[in-house]
C-alpha cells in the first residue's frame, strides 16, 4: 500500500476530483472548477482591502458593505487615510484570532468616522430585495442560517448577521455601547467562535493570503498578545483595491449564492459522493461551506 | 479610549475573569480555574503520547481507548517500537490538517498491529456503563451530541463517535475497507471537518503544544504537502508517557464531564455572562466547548 497510501490520503483529506468523463462532479472542488461563468460574480474593487505585511506578503480582505455598512464605511476611510501603515499584527491566539491595529493605542483616528452601535451587529432582511438561499441544517447558534448576496448569514426573525467563521474579519471594540470604529481588526484562525456573533461586528473575510495570518507564531502574552522578545508583524500598508494603480488591482469573483451551481455545491458539501466517503454526513455547518471565491479569469 | 481599548479587547476576545469577590464565576475560564479538585480526573500515562519534534518542542496527545480501542492499541504498539522516530510532519493544509508519519511510505510497520475496519469508526454505547452528559443544542451532523468519559461524542441511536474538532487526532487511511493502522496521523488545525466523522477514525486530541503544529508553515503542494524547498519537520521521538522515566512523565487532568462544574461550564459556554457579552448565544457547538484539561496540580 505504498503508492495507494498517498493516493488514499489525498482522497481522505481533501476535495480531490474523483470523476470519469461525463459524470457529474463528485466533489465540491470539482464542481466549483467546472461551474459555468454565469455562476460567478465579480467582487468590486471598492470591497477589497489589500494588506501588505513585513516581507511583502499580501492578505486580501473582502468587505461586506451590504451587511456592515457603517463599519465598512469607516474601514474605507481608515484605508484612504493610510491609517494602518506602520501599525502591526500584535496578537495571535491559538484556535481563536489574529489581530492587528495600533499596538500603542495612541495613534489619532482620521476625521469622518461614523458612530457605530449594537444596532450594526445585525440588519433586517425585509424590504432589501436580498434573496436568501437557506441552509436546511440545524445550527446551535441561530434559528435559521443561509446565504445572502455571496455571504453566509445566521438569521432570527427578520434579523440577519454575518457569522464568525474561519477567516472572517471582525471589529475589536470597547465595552458596550461602543461598537468599535473598525481600526482594530481580527480574523478567526480556528473553530468558529460563534458566541461572538451579534456581540461584535463582522465586516468581511480574508479571501487570499490567509496562511500569512493563520501560521504566525502564537503570542505568549495574555490572550496571545506578543510580549517581550516576540516581534509584532509590521503592516506596511492597507489599501482599498480601487485606490491602487490599475495594474496592481487584484480581481476576484465569488460564486453567486442564488445559482444552481451553488445549490449543487451545498448538496455535495453535505453529502460527499467521492470514493473515499463511506458515509455522507447528511448535513453541513454554516461555517463549513465556504462561499467559493476565485481569481477573475 | 486608550487604556480601555486594551481592556475591552481583553474582554472582547477571550474568556477573562470579570468577577467580584463572592460572585459566581462569570466566564468559562474563571469557572474552570475555581472548580474543586473532585471535578478533575487524572489522565493515565498509558493514554498520553509525547511527540518531540525538531528543536525539542513537545506536543502531547491524549488517546481515547474507550472510543477507539483498536487504533489506540496500534498507536501504543507503534510508539513502543519507536516507529515514528525519524519520520516527519510533512503536510500542513490551511484550515484543515497538519499530518505526520513516514513521508517515504516505505518504512516497515512493526509486528502485532490489529486489523481495523469501518466498524471502528463508531462504537455502541449500550451496556458500557458510560454516563452521557447531553449537549442540548442542535448539530448539523448528528441527531444527538454530548460528552462521555471526558470526551465529546456525536450520537445516532446507540452509536457514538468522536467528532473531528480542532486539535483532535485522526488516522489517515487508504480507500475502504482499509481503516488505517494508526501510523499516519493528522490533527485538525481549522474549522471542524465533521464530514470526516465516521469516515476516519478519531483516536485522541492534542492537549499540550498544539501551537507547534497549528502555526507551522502551510505546504505549497497539493493538499498542503511540503514540496521542493519546504522542509518537513523531523519527529525526533514519539513515546507513551508510561514508557518515559518517571521524572519525564507529564501529568494532566481532565474535567469530569459528569461533574456539576462541567455542567456549569457548558451553561456558561452557551450563555456568556461577563460584561462584554450583550447577547448570550443561547447555545454552543459540540466543537466549541472543549473539555477542560490542566496540568496535574
UniProtKB/TrEMBL annotation, chains A, B:
Pfam families from the UniProt entry: Pro_isomerase
Secretion signal span: 1-20
Entry keyword annotation includes Signal: yes
A single MF term (Gene Ontology): isomerase activity
SUPFAM superfamilies per UniProt: Cyclophilin-like (SSF50891)
First-level EC class: isomerase
EC number: 5.2.1.8
Gene3D superfamilies per UniProt: Cyclophilin-like
Record's keyword terms, sorted: Isomerase, Rotamase, Signal
Keyword Cell division: no
PROSITE patterns: CSA_PPIASE_2 (PS50072)
Domain (PPIase cyclophilin-type) ranges: 57-240
Protein name: peptidylprolyl isomerase
Organism this protein belongs to: Sphingobium soli
Lineage of source species: Bacteria, Pseudomonadati, Pseudomonadota, Alphaproteobacteria, Sphingomonadales
Amino acid at each position: 500500500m505504498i503508492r495507494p497510501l498517498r493516493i488514499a490520503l489525498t482522497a481522505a483529506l481533501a476535495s480531490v476530483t474523483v470523476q470519469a468523463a461525463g459524470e457529474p462532479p463528485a466533489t465540491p472542488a470539482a464542481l466549483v472548477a467546472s461551474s459555468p461563468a454565469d455562476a460567478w460574480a465579480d467582487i468590486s474593487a471598492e470591497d477589497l482591502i489589500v494588506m501588505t505585511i513585513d516581507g511583502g506578503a499580501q492578505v486580501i480582505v473582502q468587505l461586506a458593505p451590504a451587511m456592515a455598512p457603517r463599519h465598512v464605511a469607516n474601514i474605507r476611510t481608515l484605508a484612504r487615510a493610510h491609517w494602518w501603515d506602520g501599525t502591526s499584527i500584535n496578537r495571535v491566539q491559538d484556535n481563536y484570532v489574529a489581530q492587528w491595529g495600533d499596538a500603542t493605542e495612541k495613534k489619532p483616528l482620521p476625521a469622518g468616522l461614523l458612530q457605530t452601535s449594537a444596532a450594526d451587529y445585525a440588519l433586517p432582511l425585509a424590504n432589501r430585495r436580498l434573496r436568501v438561499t437557506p441552509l436546511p441544517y440545524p445550527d446551535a447558534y441561530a434559528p435559521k442560517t443561509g446565504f445572502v448576496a455571496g455571504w453566509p448569514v445566521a438569521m432570527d426573525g427578520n434579523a440577519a448577521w454575518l457569522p464568525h467563521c474561519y477567516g472572517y474579519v471582525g471589529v475589536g471594540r470597547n465595552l458596550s455601547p461602543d461598537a468599535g470604529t473598525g481600526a482594530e481588526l481580527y480574523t478567526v484562525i480556528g473553530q468558529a467562535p460563534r458566541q461572538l456573533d451579534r456581540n461584535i461586528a463582522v465586516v468581511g473575510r480574508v479571501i487570499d493570503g490567509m496562511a500569512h495570518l493563520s501560521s504566525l507564531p502564537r503570542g505568549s502574552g495574555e490572550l496571545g498578545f506578543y510580549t517581550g522578545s516576540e516581534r509584532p508583524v509590521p503592516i506596511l500598508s492597507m489599501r482599498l483595491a480601487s485606490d491602487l494603480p490599475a495594474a496592481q488591482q487584484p480581481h476576484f469573483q465569488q460564486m453567486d449564492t442564488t445559482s444552481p451551481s451553488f445549490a449543487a455545491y451545498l448538496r455535495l458539501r453535505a453529502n460527499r459522493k467521492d470514493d473515499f466517503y463511506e458515509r455522507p454526513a447528511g448535513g453541513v455547518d454554516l461555517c463549513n461551506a465556504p462561499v467559493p471565491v476565485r481569481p477573475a479569469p
